[in-house]
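input
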Amino acid sequence: MIKSEILLKLEQQRVVVVIRGNTKEQAIEAAKACIEGGITTIEVAYTNSEASQVIKALNDLYQTNQQIIIGAGTVLDAETARLAILAGAKFIVSPSFNADTASLCNRYTVPYLPGCMTLTEITTALEAGCEIVKIFPGGSLGTSFLKSIKGPLPQVRLMVTGGVSLANAQDWFNSGASIIGIGGEFNQLAEKQQFSDITKIATEFIQLAKT
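output
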């Protein structure tokens, strides 16, 4: 699958779920529960020491389903990005912009979505070839920030992560977000082994994203 196809699928889905997990098994089960609920874009966070194994396992499990896109999150440097790509990650997400990571992702034609907080950071990311920029932390910046960004940079495509919930997801979309990133509640439920609840909430997010 080429870079443009991955970016298109991310925007079509509109929802990316960040899976952390305390173990490989917990992360895999949480991801499977999200997929069952209709969220087919999964970001496996490198706060899990077994993230590479999780990415590989999920890719193996869903290798015949082209709708399911497994990526990597909380990627702080190019070395980690390369490990993720070798494991099969189709997109890379960072909490901040890293020039070396952007270069590496461009080299392997993998989408890189860095976290940004200012117009300068966003412009730097765009100039480095990032086609979608993550606004993080969204909860601290607020929906009005997105509207302000769209003034001078109407062309920028934004994913918002941090502080996104069912209660405010539509507000983020209305303010200019192309994609929302979610995860906190999902990971809390995963710790309690409440995977059926994860599936239920995932379904609710997908229904909202389609409205």
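quick obs: The first helix runs from residue 3 to 13.
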